[in-house]
Amino acid sequence: MRARSRRGLEPRKTPVQARAEATVGAISEAAIQILLSHGLDRLTTTRVAERAGVSVGTLYQYYPNKQSLLLAVLASHLDNVATAVEAACEQARGQSLAAMISAVVNAFVDAKMERADVALALYQFAADLRWPALVKQVGQRSRKALEAVLQTAPDLTSPPDAFAIEMMSAAMVGTTRYVLEAGAPPAMVRSLRSQLATLCHAYMKANTN
Amino acid sequence: MRARSRRGLEPRKTPVQARAEATVGAISEAAIQILLSHGLDRLTTTRVAERAGVSVGTLYQYYPNKQSLLLAVLASHLDNVATAVEAACEQARGQSLAAMISAVVNAFVDAKMERADVALALYQFAADLRWPALVKQVGQRSRKALEAVLQTAPDLTSPPDAFAIEMMSAAMVGTTRYVLEAGAPPAMVRSLRSQLATLCHAYMKANTN
Amino acid sequence: MRARSRRGLEPRKTPVQARAEATVGAISEAAIQILLSHGLDRLTTTRVAERAGVSVGTLYQYYPNKQSLLLAVLASHLDNVATAVEAACEQARGQSLAAMISAVVNAFVDAKMERADVALALYQFAADLRWPALVKQVGQRSRKALEAVLQTAPDLTSPPDAFAIEMMSAAMVGTTRYVLEAGAPPAMVRSLRSQLATLCHAYMKANTN
Amino acid sequence: MRARSRRGLEPRKTPVQARAEATVGAISEAAIQILLSHGLDRLTTTRVAERAGVSVGTLYQYYPNKQSLLLAVLASHLDNVATAVEAACEQARGQSLAAMISAVVNAFVDAKMERADVALALYQFAADLRWPALVKQVGQRSRKALEAVLQTAPDLTSPPDAFAIEMMSAAMVGTTRYVLEAGAPPAMVRSLRSQLATLCHAYMKANTN
DNA sequence: CATGAATGAGGTTTCATTCAT
DNA sequence: TATGAATGAAACCTCATTCAT
């Protein structure tokens, strides 16, 4: 797969007939399946189409190229996570700092873990530095929500600055990724939520004092 | 690049002559250069050989296949980092927890940052799940050293368990990676050392109290 | 585009309703537009249909395949030219040789130049040796007309034989094509008419003396 | 085959080993063979390689893409023709106008006819307007030579201007092409030389009087 | 030991054409 | 009749790897 200019990564056409809608769904689901079962570099457009039960041509009716397909899958995953974080932030308004952070971390980890395998598979090509835009933008959504909710914490005299929030996000996301990728023992994965909450909370306290 | 059995990833022959040593050095350096200038999926064995000033055939005299070459490059980088961390641990024996963590974090970040571009380039394929062994093993070295030094901290009543150390490592490594990959603003990169030290220290304190 | 047997090149059905007539017109016009804007190898049936404002399916209701569409477009153009030449011949009856040739050449060049861009675009596939029949046949019409009118030239003792007429036609058509394709300077294109008349007339005189 | 930017049309590497030299020869010869036997749009790189007795990969070691291969074949043909014309001009210095033109026309037609089939096949893609540069440049060579020799004609009071020479060239080249493409009767092809000489000479005389 | 020409499986993508709706 | 989703053969091109020189 060759790097390509920023153009042409958008899905090609929006399905208008019902049949078509089912097709795009099948294709992106198939992409995930292949990613899981074969890995990124065994994922070929032909194989995806085959698994989806359509012909390659059909795949290319909806995605202008292989990258755009993968990008769509990644975007969908990231969107899920960001949405979960946003919802958690919304619900945690006015609670204590510890409760807030716990809520956010739980939401994040849950969202990642729900399809940990998919997340793991997606990391493989999210590393590709050619698409920082998408990842950045989704990270931004989470940070915005986080910043907003932290302003409502009663036990914070001065709300943390954007910098600290970015650092905490980095810790949350980066640590989770590392733990997932390292194939950490189940015990660790299980206690990731609480440990991560401890970590983030400790950092925030240390940082705002 | 095709997945391959775990055999055949070792460098093919140990260069005994000086000339041969120079050759392997040139090849792995060339691989890094290509990784930086062209990216992983434009890195071809022919290109690497060309940049190294040798023929493809020669490359294959020292590395049985492409993966083994990349693996060697990655191993070398990880080894540098682990060695730096170990040295820092050695030097920090008997100091306060804060000083220890600061020393380790600084050593780690410095080692990563010294060739941040290389680290970034290597992330591209370190994600490939087919080589978790190497990463795990090198991580283990750091954790061992960390565990040992923490036992000498005078201000720690009970030394942290392996679990906490693993978590802290994950935070250190994962957060650094995230910050590097996110293309974070220079200000953030610059203060990464101190923030990361704060974070790790706060976590350790929270965890051992 | 695959070569295909000589069958199936005729337009599929003669449009009887007004709406249908408009459709075929739109399609062939669209084909020309695409030819001009995208070139022959970017001309796809889907694109033509889209530009014509109909669906591919509709296109295939009127043309059995892509070749037949292109053929229709070419035939139409050639017919225009042949008709213009015939008309000029008709009008030039009884005039001097010089006047006749001038009239014919002018008519020919004018017809080509009127849509020089289209002519140029059509050359792209007229070269395809699989359709010589059409070109031959239309050339024949012109030559017939030319032969007839030359018989009425008062200043020709013996009318030129078919051979000379064919040669002159070849010169007229071939030279024009060359000049158009060479992207000759405007000055040359502008004086093409007179120079071509000179050339043809000189040849005829040299040949009949 | 997609249109492509002006880059990457140069042959990829010059063969250094003897074996390689034979290979490139075999490949371009094979391209001609396929062009003759299958036509332009049945000419695939795989087929050419197969006919040449090498693998596709080998073909792509010497030509960066399909176009460059065809271009090389075309360039070689055009070069032959231009060289023949230049040689004829050189030999005709100081002769009469009629003799000069006859020599040039004969040389040109002979060069084209020697491999009339190849010339015909090449016309198919020479029409492709994306490479006017090559054709123009070779035409220029012929015209330069023609201009030079015409200055030495003793029976020309004033040598013809560049314009007239260009027109005559257009007539020579265009007419020959038309005759070849039209699948003219053998009789015509046979007398093409003399008729074309007559035509060019008559034009030149008419033009310089 | 080094060279680099050769290999060829396999990847991505296009597009003329069909046919169920 | 019109639509446009689906098809799938087939094209171009890459690149890890081998092996004769």
Describe the structure.
Four copies of one chain form a homotetramer. With 209 residues, chain A is mostly helical. Helix content of chain A is 73%, strand content 0%. Chain A contains nine helices and no strands. The first copy, chain A, has two domains: 18-64, Orthogonal Bundle (Arc Repressor Mutant, subunit A), CATH 1.10.10.60; 70-208. At the C-D interface, helix 6, helix 7, helix 8 and helix 9 of C face helix 6, helix 7, helix 8 and helix 9 of D. The structure holds a DNA duplex (21 and 21 nucleotides).
- What does the overall shape of chain A look like? elongated
Number of domains of chain A: 2
- Oligomeric nature of the chains: homotetramer
Most extensive chain contact? A-B, 46 and 46 residues
| Count of DSSP strands of chain A | 0
Radius of gyration of chain A: 19 Å
What share of the residues of chain A lie within helices?
Answer: over 70%
Low-pLDDT runs of 5+ residues of chain A are 2-7
* Class from secondary-structure proportions of chain A: mainly alpha
Question: Keywords, please?
Answer:
homotetramer, 209 residues, mainly alpha, Arc Repressor Mutant, subunit A, 0% strand, elongated, disordered N terminus, DNA-binding
Element layout with pairings:
The structure is a homotetramer of 209-residue chains.
Chain A: H1 18-38, H2 45-52, H3 56-62, H4 66-91, H5 97-114, H6 116-126, H7 132-150, H8 162-181, H9 186-208
Helix pairs in contact in A: 1-2, 1-4, 2-3, 4-5, 4-6, 4-7, 5-9, 7-8, 8-9
Chain A binds a DNA duplex (21 and 21 nucleotides) through residues 1-2, 15-17, 19-20, 23, 44-46, 54-58, 60-61, 64-66.
